[in-house]
Please model this.
Amino acid sequence: MPPNPQRLLRTTYAFGAAGFAALLLLMLASFWLAQRTQSTTENVLKARAQRTVLVRLLSTVQDAETGQRGYLLTGEDRYLKPYETAIADIGQRLKDVRAAFSENPDEGPAIEEIDKAIDDKLAELAKTISAFKAGKPSEALDIVKSDRGKDLMDHIRVLIGEAFQRVDKKLSEGVEQQRVDSSAAREFSLLAGIFILLTALGSIATIVRYTRQLVSARNELQELNTGLENRVAERTADLQRANEEIQRFAYIVSHDLRAPLVNVMGYTSELEASLETLQALTKDPQIDVLATAEAAKAAVTTDMPESIGFIRTSTQKMDGLIKAILKLSREGQRVLAPERINLAEFFDSVADSVQHRVSSAGGEIRVVKPLASIEGDRLALEQIFGNLVDNALKYRAKDRPPVIKISQVSHRWGAVDIEVQDNGRGIGDEDRERVFDLFRRAGPQDQQGEGIGLAHVRTLVRRLGGEITMTSQLGRGTTFRVTLPSKLNTRGQ
Ligand SMILES: Nc1ncnc2c1ncn2[C@@H]1O[C@H](COP(=O)(O)OP(=O)(O)O)[C@@H](O)[C@H]1O
Ligand SMILES: [Mg+2]
Model:
């Protein structure tokens, strides 16, 4: 599966968003729990304070009673000490209880009732003590024995005990609440932590998978690339071989064709020589007596020389064509010699070589600078641009002086584009491709030529690793664009 960056982004975003949401939830929950714990703790603290004031109240009442008993038993004043302290403190103890339950008096003890019971109790204590002090211990003992003080004390214990129960219940509830909350916090943090960890692992896994895919795709690409390069090299070698074979073939064929042609030309000369003998013979008046004399004379003086003339021009033409093919095939086999060529100087010399012809036609040839420097084969370049400029002059328009412009139109990385532009007679659309074919000519046949030039030019340009294209407007002019590599590739030679 090819790596899909869109999917990677989507998946990592999804994991990131889920992790972030979990984190947010965790934060909110922690905050809420912290609030709750605080209020629970406050309640617990308050309950503990309430319990303390209740304990103190009860112990103060008990202190008073303990002091009274001690005094009644011993009659010593120092036993009255706890009694007196309790009497002094009791008002404050009651106030403390009231204050502790001021917010929720329902939960507190029945304070009025306690107040009343304590008053009664204290009154009973005071009564026994004053009786004892007045020297009537039996009277004091009777009051004690009446169990009224004990009943009051029991009543006070019950009243405070009820409040104790409520406060203790509240305390244990608060503690339980704290336990539940803290375990909930622990569980929730654990869950959220695991979830966040999972999302992190998920995004890491996605990234790792994507990176793996990327690496394997890159390796695949590299392999493909290597394969492709090998195939291109193979095909190039194949083409090179085929090309060489065709050139050899062309050479052999044209070479072998020339041998019989030379024979034909030789025998034609002999025929001409023999013809002279025959012509001399027909001038002899002795043959006039023969019935076929007239016909023989006509054959020897007109028919035969005419035919021999045709044979001669045809064989000469054929010889020229075969020579051209030979030249092309030799050219194809020539080893290119790369050298640094300053195109400005090079085109100046091309222009110089045709300057005389241009001036005598009243025209001009312009080399537009700046021009680049390339590495190329000088001879090949001379033949390419020599042919193009020659054509531009040869196929100029009859009604205007020729203007030829050579310029560099672009310099891409590793290649330059050169244009040879003329204002000549132009080439019709139907001949656009054909003019590059061997022995093909176009337009009026009013100029010498064999239709070899452009075929040769295209072969050479391609051998240099370039390409040639042409645009033309009939009657307006033609532009040839030659693309050349900046550096000659001689690997395939
Ligand atoms: N610059 C040009 N302007 C007009 N026609 C051209 C030009 N160059 C080439 N041609 C046409 O292309 C044909 C082929 O040219 P080429 O291969 O050089 O052969 P040749 O010059 O021997 O005819 C020419 O016959 C001519 O019709
Ligand atoms: Mg030509």
Remarks:
- The chain has three domains: 5-211, 242-333, 338-485.
